[in-house]
Amino acid sequence: MTASAANTHSGEPGEEPRICIVGAGMSGILMAIKLLEKGIDNFVVYERSGAVSGTWRQNRYPGVACDVASFTYSYSFEPNPDWTHRFSPGPEIRAYFEKVVDKYGVRPFIRFNTEVTAARFENAQWRVTTGDGNEELFDVYVAATGPLNNLHYPDIKGLQDFSGACFHTADWDDDYDYTGKRVGIIGTGSSSVQSVDPLSARAEHLTIFQRTPQWVINTANPEYSPMAIRLKHAFPVLGRLTRWFYSWIGEQFGLAALKDGFRRRVVFKACQSALDSVKDPVLRKKLTPDYLPMCRRMIMSGSFHEAVQRPNVTVETTAIECVTPEGVRTVDGKEHKLDLLILATGFFFNAQNVKHVVGLNGQSLADYWKDGIKTYRSISIPGFPNYFMLVGPNSPITNLSLIEIAEIGVNYVMQCIDKIRQGEITAMAPRNDITAAYMQNLRNAFGETIWTSGCSSWYLDDDGIPATFPGPPSEYRHELDEPLLQEYELIGA
Ligand code: N01
User: Fold this and answer.
1) ∠ Cα 490 439 296 (to 5°)
2) Packed helices 226-234 and 236-258: angle between N→C axes, nearest 10 degrees
3) What pLDDT, in 10s, does the model give residues 374-426?
4) Would you call 168 helix, strand, or coil by DSSP?
5) CB half-sphere exposure, 234, CA atoms < 13 A
6) Nearest CA residue ID for atom 5, ligand 1
7) Is 302 helix (H, G, I), strand (E, B) or coil?
8) 8 inside domain
9) Which residues pair with 30 in a beta bridge?
10) Which residue among 110, 258, 392, 448 is least enclosed by CB atoms within 10 Å?
11) What residue numbers bound the domain in which 285 lies?
12) Is the C-beta atom of 154 inside 6 A of ligand 1?
């Protein structure tokens, strides 16, 4: 085991703090770019896989695409006139990040295939241990691990005994050809809904095992013509206007979730009309949720309702009893014979996977959060100095561009790093009383939102408290405009 103290910050003005970024996905890449822009190169990006782009590397299932418009799902400083669709396919988004990483010179700073297994705050620094047994010291720790990357596998009897192919949507077997196969998919979230069209187009039969129906908004996904792309190259203002328009739509959508009113009625109407396009009343009834639209994350798809009505698609609503070597048996005794079983069963919310992070006085983050997640403005945590989260719990993680949210967070963290560089402080952790008051305000505000109207969802913790932000993105931006040092415990000030 080695411990490297080289290049650590002495606390003297002008000294460069050493920064650790965990995750080379959308927000980790962004953090690295902004550090380099400021001339800071004393940082490491740890990436547990062998490639960049996070969720877009992990999710390669058929039909994977962004569910917010591409012109908002790109860095504000790196517009991409070449997006081919309104909601671009996953591989195109992945290629965008690969290109950006090279253009901004981030790749040499990434340690690929290196997982952070422990992070401990001791002697005013973060001691970071990786899977290969190495240890390094850092002044600042930036968690850029995204909200959803730890796969949830269902606990279904017999799953291990299935003799066909079986994989999670976020661990897709690229070599498996499902053409002409009998395919089953467990789950009806965004991943499942996006894949119903391509799967049913080639499979002999597709059975969707549905435990809970979902509201799906019909969102057309037109391809941009070569002429439209050329125009966006020639007149970059067109791309900026498109971005502004979809950001505005996102803001309206966010407001619909926050309070009752005409925006909410528009969304409800759109959901109902998408459902009404299902002609068979039996199928329509199966697909009808018993909770309000937007209570769970809204699903966007331009192909689901048409695809689910194909003759080779069955929506099975009888509960699963077990998986057998041949397929799935439902509790009514029916055997569904399958060649491929897909687990579209989602993720553990990342905030639940923080056992390896230990702050002041040896307290683990898991322990600090054992009675519910508490954050200061989504970005930092009392007792965990210089630990910053990008797109952390209590940031707006609903149907918005998470790139816009990450940019707000990175701007905030950069200001904190600047204060450390100036020698104003060595370390900062939010005050307990301020954080408690902040969380109380959030809880009070959640009462009016759609997320607490009665549904189960990955947004909610065990007590039914949403892990999102009860305000529009503009309010979040305002909250994270600049660090308020009086709300922090400061070390070395
Ligand atoms: O996962 P989910 P997802 N037996 O958690 C079912 C983002 N995303 O991967 O609802 C039977 O939504 C579970 O049933 P129930 C997006 O933020 C983005 O689809 O709990 N069923 C549910 O139907 C999204 O919200 C994009 O009753 C079981 C499903 O599995 C988030 O990822 C694309 C079960 C899980 O749905 C997660 O979406 C894809 C069991 N034992 C995803 N266990 C973009 O477009 C679970 N289920 C960017």
Assistant:
1) 135
2) 100
3) 999 999 999 999 999 999 999 998 878 999 999 999 999 999 999 999 888 89
4) strand
5) 6
6) 346
7) coil
8) no
9) none
10) 448
11) 159-231+261-347
12) yes
User: How many structural domains comprise the chain?
Assistant: 2
Q: Is 399 in the pocket of ligand 1 (CB under 6 A)?
A: no
Instruction: Give the closest residue to 32 by CA, choosing from 134, 116, 140.
Output: 140
| Cβ–Cβ under 8 Å, residues 213 and 286 | yes
* pLDDT of residue 442 exceeding 50: yes
Task: Pick the residue whose CA is nearest to atom 13 on ligand 1.
Answer: 187
Mean pLDDT of 293-308: 95
Q: Are residues 343 and 353 in the same domain?
A: no
Residues 449, 454, 460, 465, Cα dihedral to 10°: 60
Q: What is the mean pLDDT of the chain?
A: 93
221 lines ligand 1 (CB under 6 A): no
Residue 10 lies in a domain: no
**pLDDT score of 4 more than 60:** no
Measure the CA–CA gap between 468 and 453, rounded to whole angstroms.
15
Answer yes or no: is 208 within a domain: yes
Task: Give the tens place of pLDDT for each residue, 88-117.
Answer: 999 999 999 999 999 999 999 999 999 999
Query: Given ligand 1 and candidates 221, 345, 401, which is best to mutate, with the most ligand atoms within 8 Å of its CB?
Result: 345
Place of tokens 């689901």: 304
pLDDT in tens, 321-368: 999 999 999 999 999 999 999 999 999 887 767 889 999 999 999 999
Tokens 């997006």 identify what position?
83
339 and 381 part of one domain:
no
Dihedral pair phi/psi, residue 166, rounded to 5°: -150, 120
- Could you tell me the distance, in angstroms and rounded to a whole number, from the CA of residue 401 to the centre of ligand 1? 19
Amino acid present at 276:
D
CA nearest neighbour of 413 among 10, 15, 34, 4: 34
Residue 347: Cβ within 10 Å count: 22
Tokens encoding 130: 């990786």
